[in-house]
Amino acid sequence: MDAAVSPPGAAVGAHYAPPTENPEDDDDDEGWGMLCSLTDESELVPADFSPVVFTLQLPAAGVRQFVVKQNGTARLNPVEGLGESETVVTTGAVVWDGSVVMAAALPGLGPEIGLQSTATVLELGAGASGLPGLTALAMGATVTLTDGAAALLLPLREAVMSNCTEVEQARATIAHLRWDNVAGSHHEGAYDVVLAAECVYDVTAVGILLDALDAALTPTGCAVVAIDTKIGRHVAYAEFASRARDRFNVETLAHRDSTHDSETVTIYRLVRPQP
Question: CA nearest 254: which of 72, 67, 13?
Fold first, then answer.
């Protein structure tokens, strides 16, 4: 059965102190466009944009292997609602370290974040690979994988179809979703877990992302956000850390998979304060 594709259309460890060296380089759109210079430093993702082979250890199901493609030369139209950096290169067409680290950590984080076989999961900014979403599917959840760039939906669907069983495909939906369109849609209040890996990079979009997380979650739901400070978007990181505390309890998740880890990636858990 094919994965469904919809048409386009208190705080613990949450404080962020940006490095003091080279502050003038922060949020430099020109540097942001140089994807090769960023991925060259990665030990988790091939710098030549070849396919990423990701091996996952599941507690009950054993070893799974995902193979996802990258496209380092993709160009798309600007994504409305985000900054000008999106006009330079399609950031979602490649796999980022934060996505790999989050995906590897999810099996061990399952009980802590409510990711179980009965969970409904939304991945925001899944890109063309959706590694965290693929992992949630392998863990038995019902998953909606989304991106704001409609051109990425077909490669995202291919990633699901080529890496998931028919049973998992039946629990998967691929959808075009802008973060500012979550509220008031059928996505509002629909998810037990919302995943967002490497979605914090544009300071002007931080509030939009937080609004989307807040809107998509059930009252007791949990958002999981991965940030890689190596990319250097320090103003955006600080803005996220500050504004997230205004509406969520935020904590840093300690569980890591030592075979897929990076010291510059932090995974946060966001939940609404309960009465």
Answer: 13
Whether residue 169 contacts residue 161, with contact meaning beta carbons closer than 8 Å, is answered with yes
CA distances from 33 to 75, 197, 200 (A): 11, 19, 16
pLDDT band at 233 (very low <50, low <70, confident <90, very high): confident
Neighbours of 142 (CB within 10 A): 18
Q: How confident is the model at residue 68 (pLDDT cuts 50, 70, 90)?
A: confident
The pair of structure tokens assigned to 124 is 């925001």
pLDDT: which is higher, 160 or 72: 160
Q: Could you give the dihedral angle defined by the CA atoms of residues 133, 249, 274 and 202, in that order, rounded to the nearest 10 degrees? A: -60
Closest CA to 180 of 207, 158, 202, 218: 207
Exposure b/e, 199-217, CB count within 10 A at least 16 = b = bbbbbebbebbbebbbbbb
Residue 86 has pLDDT above 50, yes or no: no
Does residue 63 carry a pLDDT above 80?
A: yes
Instruction: Give the pair of three-digit tokens for residue 135.
Output: 């992992």
Q: Are 172 and 143 in contact (CB under 8 A)?
A: yes
